[in-house]
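### Sample
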Amino acid sequence: MASVLEDPALERHFRGHRDAVTCANFSPNNKQLATGSADTNVMIWNLSPKARAFRFVGHKDAVTGVEFSPSGELLVSSSRDKTVRLWTPTIKGESVLFRAHTAAVRSVSFSQDGQQLVTASDDKSVKVWAVHRQRFLYSLNQHTNWVRCARFSPDGRLIASCGDDKTVQLWDTATRQRINIFTDYGGCQTAVEFNSSGTCIASSGTDNTLKIWDLRTNKLLQHYQVHSAMINAFSFHPSCNFIITASSDSTVKVLDLLEGRLIYTLHGHKGSVLTVSFSRVGSLFASGGSDAQVLMWRTNFDAFSYKEMLKRHSQRVNPEPPPHLADIYPRGPHLHSAQSSSIEINPCVVDTQTADPAIIEAGQSVNSNMGGADLESRAGGGQAAREEDALGYSVASSPEQSSGLPLTISSTLEHIVRQLDILTQAVSLLEERLTLTEDKLKECLDAQAHMVLQVQQAGEGPMESGSQDSSA
């Protein structure tokens, strides 16, 4: 547990990944933690003691993003293998494959209602997908370099994206047009996120900074430069009073947003910290890094009156020293030692009795490509009734029993829908190429008009001088 005050405490560590941990997300019921890794696997850790962990196999390259749906019934992951997988987080570990982009997919996230997904990719595009029909909907194509992150606003009306073109861009999901662009950045932007009310966005970058913008006024509210290396990820506390950051300087830092200052520096990882995420209620947060460890921290930020907590913290960071004799009878200059700006925590794991959990391999049999039928209708189970599995989620009945159609008809319809989805993707690619062609053509026409204007101006000069000579 956390201390009598409000310090974060390292409660557990999870070992099972074979390479750097790149992403993490808590389930809505706060009972599971999903993580993704450069070892190409997605893992689900059960937070109850001595429970088994599940390793989901399917991606062919590093996993870059992972997130539970708002209901907790689905889990989505993105990967450098250019795909997105929609998993049923059960012991069977079955998934549907989205052939999402033409380059590595950097992030994936659900909308608040769980009906759509947004993906960001090195192909410079942001794409939106329908979850239950597993269909591509539309692309957003104004970034000029890799897009590292994209997120829906809480009300689903906006999408924020950021990337290596050093911009954060804001999109209207109704018109599918860019409505704002923030360019006041000194480096590539690694992550972007809305606060819980949707009034602000925060973004982090390779210039070691975190910035928070007010969307109502388009003004920069806060600017933090508390890390000595790039910030790889961050997460808002549900109260929006705090934010945690993960950096390549091997630390996690906790920022007090109401006071606008750093309050904690957390050590624990050996190497870059690549991901950090608060639980949905804010009592836990997880961090993962290049040391292949997942650390789970407990807080009690919400257990105190916020003003009382700030008062206690201020007293600990800046304790009042006893009066110095020279302050009472000044006889010459003297130096005071500088006070630390944040509380440093070098943790020990609270739970030293629980061994690393047993790991069960899942996801060996995988549904491929984007099908038109709902994921549940293909989650395979041989029994007519739905049953609870070891993770506490439902396992669907067989396809024929779920849809009520003969298997041959279902298969034919599925094939037709798959072909339509492939055509939709092809049309999207053609639209992107047409847009690029139009942009190039516009540039050529502008350049040609500029040249014509220059020629005309150059021609008018000699004619004027000739007319002056003749009049003379």
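The helical segments are 306-317, 325-328, 399-403, 407-471. This sample (POC1 centriolar protein homolog B) is used throughout the tutorial notebook.
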